[in-house]
C-alpha cells in the first residue's frame, strides 16, 4: 500500500506502524516539520518535557519498565546535544531507545549553519548505530531498522538524524519496507560444545558462583536462572543492573558484588574456583583491582555481545548467545548428566560470611534520620511490586542494599555511566510505561536539582510518581570520599539544602505536586504511608538525613576486593588468608 505524503508525515506514520505510543521531546526549528503531523496522530502521545536530557532519561525509564523501545525527539544543535548524556547512559546499560533528531537542511550541513551540530559524529562512540537521513524515501525503512537494531542482540540506543528538507519534501510511503542490514546478525543460539564444557566445569568445581548481570534480565531469563540455581545449588550474586532478577529472599542469594557489595558476595567471588558469568561485563566496580580479582577461579563467560567476552577477564569457556537460551541449554545438559558438584563445604564458608557480616548501619545519638532506615521502611511499606528508580551516589547504593527486590526489573538505575539527574525523568517514563504500578524515584538532593523541572511535566501530564529525596545537604558520595581519602577537606560538596535552599516542599508545591518533609525516625512510616495514599498528583518527600551517613561495605577504587572494609578501619577475616 503506497501513499504520497511529506517526509514528516512518513516519519509519524512509521512510528505508528512500529506501535509507538509515547514520545518524549521538545520541538525546535529543524524538527518542527515532524511536530505538525504529530499533532494529528491519535496513536502517538507526545510528552512535552522541560529539558531534552529529561526526554532521553524518560525514554530509558519507559524502556526499562516495559521492555519495549523508548523514543525521544529533539531539534538540531543544542537540542540534540542535550540528548548525549541519556544516549551514553543507555549505551552503557544496554537500554533500547531510539533518539530522533532534526538536522539543518542538507544543503547547509557542514556550513556551521544556525543550530547545526554533527550529532551523528558526536554520538558515534555511544550509539549501537546511527543514521543521517537526507532522502525522505529512506525514512520508513530507517525507522524500522532503528527499532530492530535497538531491540535485538544486545539492546542499545540508536540515533536517527533527519535533515529538515527531508522532512518537508514529498515522498511515496509504503509499508512494510524491506530492511537493508546485511552485516547485522546477532548470535542468540549458544554453541553446544561450549555448553558441555561449562557443565563439565560446574560438576568439577568445589566453590562455584553464578555471577549474574543485567544481560540476564534483558533476556527475560529470571525463571531459567532460578531453575539453574536450584538444580545446581550454586550461590548467586546479582549486580546492580540485575537486582531482582534473582529473588533477594532466596537462601542461595549472596547479595550484590563490588565496591559497595555485601561481604558474602565479594567473598564468594574472591574465594571461588569457578565463576559462571551470565550477561556481565566484569566491570571495574565489581572486580576492583583486576589483577587480584578471583585469583583461583576459572571463568565461564556467557554474553550476547562477543566484544564483552574476555575483554576484561580471560574466559576459559566463552559462550556467545542470548542468556535465556544459554541458561536453558545449561539446565538441559546438567539434567541429562549424572554428575553433580558437592558444595557442602563451600556453603559452610558462605553461610559463615552471611551470618558474621550482614549489612548494617549506624544510628545517630542526636535522633537524626539514618538514610538506610528510610530505605528499609520504604521497601517494607511500598512492597516488592513497586518500581524503584534511583539516581546515582549514596542513595543509589542504599536503595540497592536496603530494599528487598523479589521481581526482575523493579530496580531501575544508572549503572554504567552513573548519571546524576537520572531518577526523576526515568521514573516519569517508567510510570507512563506502567501506569498501574507504583513508581518511587529515590534521589539525592544533588541529583534532584539537576532534573527536578520534570516535576512540571509529571504534574501537567498526570503522572503521579513519588519522589524520595535523601537530603543530607551534600554531594554525599563525593563527601564520603573526601572523608576517607582527602583528610576531611570538603571542597565544594556542601549544597546547604538542609538550610532549605531550596525548600524542597515549597518547590514541589510550586510545580503542582504535594510536598512532605520527614526529619525524625518516628515519622518515617506515617510519611511514606501518606505519600502512598496520594495517587492523583506527584508527591515529593524531603527526607532530611544525617550528613555523615556512609555507604558500607566499601572497596576503595583501585584496590583489591580482598581489602573490603565493613566500616572505617574494619575488615572481614577471610577463610583462607593463611593458605
Task: Give your account of this protein's structure.
Helix content is 37%, strand content 17%. The chain has 579 residues and is α/β, with parallel strands linked by helices. Strands 3-2-4-5-7-6 form a 6-stranded parallel sheet, sandwiched between helices. The longest helix has 15 residues, at 52-66. The model has no long low-confidence stretch (mean pLDDT 97).
The tally of structural domains comes to: 3
Return the CATH class of the largest domain: Alpha Beta
Radius of gyration: 24 Å
Largest sheet report: 6 strands, parallel
- In helices, the fraction of residues equals 25-40%
Portion of residues in beta strands equals 15-25%
Class inferred from helices and paired strands: alpha/beta
Spatial gap, N to C terminus: 74 Å
Catalytic activity: 2 pyruvate + H(+) = (2S)-2-acetolactate + CO2
Pathway: Amino-acid biosynthesis; L-valine biosynthesis; L-valine from pyruvate: step 1/4; Amino-acid biosynthesis; L-isoleucine biosynthesis; L-isoleucine from 2-oxobutanoate: step 1/4
EC number: 2.2.1.6
Family: Belongs to the TPP enzyme family.
List the SSEs and their pairings:
Blueprint: E1 2-6, H1 7-17, E2 22-25, H2 32-38, E3 45-48, H3 52-66, E4 70-74, H4 78-81, H5 84-92, E5 97-103, H6 119-123, E6 129-133, H7 139-151, E7 158-163, H8 164-168, E8 170-174, H9 192-204, E9 208-212, H10 214-218, H11 222-232, E10 236-238, E11 253-255, H12 263-271, E12 274-278, H13 284-287, E13 298-303, E14 317-320, H14 323-336, H15 344-356, H16 371-382, E15 387-390, H17 394-402, E16 411-413, H18 423-433, E17 439-444, H19 445-451, H20 454-461, E18 466-471, H21 476-485, H22 504-510, E19 514-518, H23 524-533, E20 539-544
Parallel strand pairs: 2-3, 2-4, 4-5, 5-7, 6-7, 9-10, 9-12, 10-11, 12-13, 13-14, 15-16, 15-17, 17-18, 18-20, 19-20
Antiparallel strand pairs: 1-8
